[in-house]
């Protein structure tokens, strides 16, 4: 991160890029609402179509003021720091009129351009972190660009060979948030279930455990992270009777991590691991596949979860939900911006810990 980064200047609110996602979904609304709610603590710079966002802001709340800049102006003169009475928008123009709830492939490349601008901005020192609103993968693919998701795109654009998807959020009981955050990382992400076992390897799990341990220390300020690892099979393989991946892959990877000084434990049966008595001293759970860990996380955090990409040379967080085209089609006021607020707060906390770790 550049030495001219905003966090290194006393009295200046840290700047975080917020890409507003699929324009026909709820992303623009929740980005504006969450950024406005957090404006006194962080300078959330929205990346999207300035005219569309100004119109959306006026419809949401006349009190929301936006000031737009061109990307070229920021490249030439840097990011100006307006006061907390307005939101900054870096204009990334759309190519087609937006109809809420209706996808248009003609806007796919513009959505992708907001991600490129955010990455450029962190590398140039304009931003401390990136927060992404949900986008629609199909729209970008229909626009002629092969795209599998935010996580993979950020890894490719930053030449990062290995990243880890982790979701986190405040645990909730009977609707009340409480206690330490629940963090669930994934050994595999968007794979068919039939391909998961073949995608697991000792070396791959070793790299994942290294990344989790390193980022929990550097970006979360956890001095000695404790990582609990799920088995792949029911009952963690039942001693080999229900599968041998625990014996041949997962257990050796954990042992190797322990030899490197990482406090990783397991493998544990996933159906019993997610209990307070096991999680109370854990800093992260590593699940073997998407639907092994995320249903538990999303249930426990009640829509206030945050998607975090570990292993990147930058900080990137996101919401724990999709574009919600059906809600967008119903008009403003239907969407909950809680996850976006949590994503902004998490990005700010991670940027703080990262800076402290470098000092």
Polypeptide structure, described:
It is found in: Cytoplasm. It catalyses: 4-(phosphooxy)-L-threonine + NAD(+) = 3-amino-2-oxopropyl phosphate + CO2 + NADH. The structure is a single chain. The two termini are 13 Å apart. The chain has 359 residues and is α/β, with parallel strands linked by helices. It contains 14 helices and twelve strands. It is globular. It has two domains: 6-160 and 312-358, Isopropylmalate Dehydrogenase, CATH 3.40.718; 164-299, Isopropylmalate Dehydrogenase (3-Layer(aba) Sandwich), CATH 3.40.718.10.
Into which percentage range does the β-strand content fall?
15-25%
Number of strands: 12
Superfamily (CATH H level) name of the largest domain: Isopropylmalate Dehydrogenase
Q: Secondary-structure element order, as H and E?
A: EHEHEHEHEHHEEHHEHEHHEHEEHH
Number of structurally distinct domains: 2
pLDDT averaged residue by residue: 92
Which structural class should the secondary elements be placed in? alpha/beta
Strand order of the largest sheet: 3-4-2-1-5-12-11-6-7-10-8-9
The coarse overall form would be globular
The CATH topology name of the largest domain reads: Isopropylmalate Dehydrogenase
- Taking pLDDT < 50 over at least 5 consecutive residues as the criterion, the unreliable ranges are 1-7
Distance between the termini: 13 Å
Helix tally equals: 14
The CATH class of the largest domain turns out to be: Alpha Beta
Main beta sheet: strand number and arrangement?
Answer: 12 strands, mixed
Helix content: 25-40%
């Amino acid at each position: 991160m550049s030495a001219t980064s905003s966090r290194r200047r006393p009295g200046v609110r840290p700047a975080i890029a917020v890409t507003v996602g699929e324009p026909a979904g709820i992303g623009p609304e929740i980005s504006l609402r969450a950024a406005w709610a957090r404006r006194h603590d962080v300078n959330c710079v929205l990346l999207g179509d300035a005219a569309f966002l100004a119109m959306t802001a006026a419809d949401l709340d006349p009190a929301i003021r936006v000031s737009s800049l061109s990307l070229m102006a920021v490249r030439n003169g840097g990011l100006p720091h307006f006061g907390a009475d307005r939101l900054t928008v870096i204009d990334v123009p759309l190519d087609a009129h937006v109809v809420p709830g209706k996808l248009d492939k003609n806007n796919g490349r513009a959505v992708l351009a907001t991600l490129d601008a955010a990455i450029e901005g962190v590398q140039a020192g304009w931003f401390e972190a990136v927060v992404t609103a949900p986008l629609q993968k199909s729209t970008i693919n229909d626009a002629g660009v092969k795209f599998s998701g935010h996580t993979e795109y950020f890894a490719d654009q930053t030449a990062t060979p290995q990243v880890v998807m982790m979701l986190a959020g405040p645990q909730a009981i009977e609707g009340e948030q409480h206690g330490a955050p629940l963090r669930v990382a994934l050994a595999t992400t968007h794979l068919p279930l039939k391909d998961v076992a073949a995608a697991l390897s000792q070396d791959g799990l070793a790299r994942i455990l290294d990344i989790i341990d390193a980022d929990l220390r550097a970006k979360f300020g956890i001095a000695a992270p404790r990582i609990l690892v799920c088995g792949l099979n029911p009952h963690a393989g039942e001693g080999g009777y229900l599968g041998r991946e625990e014996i041949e892959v997962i257990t050796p990877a954990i042992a190797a991590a322990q030899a490197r000084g990482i406090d990783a434990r397991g493998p544990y049966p996933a159906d019993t691991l997610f209990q307070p008595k096991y999680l109370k001293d854990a800093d992260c759970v590593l699940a073997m596949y998407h639907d092994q860990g995320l249903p538990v996380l999303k249930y426990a955090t009640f829509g206030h979860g945050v998607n975090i990409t570990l292993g990147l040379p930058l900080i990137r967080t996101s919401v724990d939900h999709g574009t919600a085209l059906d809600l967008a089609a119903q008009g403003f006021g239907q969407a909950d911006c809680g996850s976006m607020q949590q994503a902004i707060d998490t990005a700010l906390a991670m940027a703080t810990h990262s800076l402290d770790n470098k000092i």
